[in-house]
Design goal:
This protein is mainly α. Helices cover 55% and strands 5% of the residues. InterPro entries: Arv1.
Length: 282
């Protein structure tokens, strides 16, 4: 989630306007990429969300000049010189500037891998709960094989519930688009933002490994953190108000809860978040 610095930047053209980053005397500006490349690559100001053609210009002798936003007169992206750990901390704090830097001004292609890994974490938690209810150890190969398929089943159920959650969000935003959202909604970018902002599910594994009496509380806090991250990702990606974003999250939870209820009616051992939080026997 927290990738930053110049190594994470997308290629783009610099601009002579800005503040000098580093020491040294400026010489003739050497543009790091062509004009055609920057024309097809739009960035965003992390402060006011206005589009920008470039983030910085690389000069000789290791001198950088950060581009100044023409709208708010602030640096377009101050995070290009920040350490990735600082960016990660700001993202954990759900700062809109950090989310804009990650979503618009960096090139991250780990959405699919992160999604699969988060689903594996959630499936493991559900599978662990299922096995915890019956702790009888049987060395028979058939029993071990059945338990393995239980894990695959939990993974499929977790995937379906997350898909239902996303469908609920997308459906609400698609319905409200003609009224509230002036520009066309980029659902591909929104999907990537939601997948990246769900990184909080990785905390499910430590919560299970360090089993404690406060584990149910930890799971509730993880759920709240993931929803808060999704809330910020939607608001930053679409540049909409908090009320509309909250209703979108609520719609996603409603569709997800409907899917959970369906699985429970089918008498499947779901072990989902909704079922976890309602259950007192963990």
């Amino acid at each position: 989630m927290g990738t930053g610095g110049r190594s994470g930047l997308r290629p783009g053209k610099g601009n002579a306007e800005g503040v000098t980053a580093g020491k040294g005397k400026t010489d003739e500006a050497t543009v790091t990429s062509t004009t055609a490349t920057s024309a097809s690559c739009q960035y965003r100001c992390i402060e006011c969300n206005q589009e920008a053609k470039e983030l910085y210009r690389d000069y000789n002798h290791g001198v950088l000049k950060i581009t100044i936003c023409k709208s708010c007169q602030k640096p377009v992206d101050k995070y290009i010189e920040y350490d990735p750990v600082i960016i990660l901390i700001n993202a954990i704090l759900c700062k809109a500037q950090a989310y804009r830097h990650i979503l618009f001004n960096t090139k991250i292609n780990m959405h699919g891998k992160l999604c699969v890994f988060c689903l594996l974490c959630e499936a493991y938690l559900r599978w662990w709960q299922l096995q915890d209810s019956s702790r009888n150890i049987d060395p028979d190969d058939f029993i071990r094989y059945a338990k393995e398929w239980d894990f695959y089943r939990m993974f499929a159920i977790a995937s379906l519930e997350q898909t239902a959650y996303f469908i609920g969000i997308f459906t609400f935003l698609w319905i409200e688009r003609p009224i509230k959202v002036k520009e066309k909604v980029n659902f591909t970018l929104l999907l990537k933002a939601l997948l990246l902002s769900s990184y909080g599910k990785l905390l499910l594994i430590p919560a299970v490994i360090w089993e404690h009496d406060y584990t149910p509380l930890c799971l509730r806090l993880i759920k709240v953190f993931v929803l808060t991250s999704n809330f910020q990702a939607i608001r930053v990606t679409l540049n909409i108000n908090r009320k509309l974003t909250f209703l979108a999250i609520l719609s996603g939870l409603l569709v997800e809860s409907t899917m959970v209820y369906f699985f429970q009616r089918m008498e499947w051992a779901v072990g989902s978040d909704c079922a976890i939080y309602k259950s007192q026997d963990f």
